[in-house]
Write a structure and sequence with these properties.
Helix content: 55-70%
Strand content: under 5%
Structural class: mainly alpha
Distance between the termini: 68 Å
């Protein structure tokens, strides 16, 4: 079976898109790693003083989700803050 030129172009485009998506994912990871290194070198803000697990909780909270034991995983209302969540992220333990 012989492929038509349009089919060959489609296959080439798919390969190119796949390669670009892989490159984008690699660069995104590298960029995040470099940002973390830069933040460490500069002495960074409060989030660099947090452990990795607390940084993850902080990101979830900033995306609008509860991270406290009471309401974990439920959505925060628009403009709502939760003292329990803030204690989990920034509290001393």
């Amino acid at each position: 079976m012989t492929l038509r030129p349009s089919e060959k172009n489609l296959i080439t485009c798919k390969k190119t898109v796949t390669a670009k998506l892989e490159e984008n994912a690699e660069l995104t990871i590298e960029n995040q790693h470099l940002r973390e290194l830069l933040a460490e070198d500069e002495g960074g803000g409060q989030s660099t003083q947090l452990s990795k697990s607390r940084q993850t909780l902080e990101k979830l909270y900033e995306q609008g989700y509860h991270v406290c034991n009471r309401d974990y995983g439920t959505r925060l209302d628009k403009g709502e803050s939760c003292a329990f969540c803030l204690d989990v992220i920034y509290g001393e333990r």
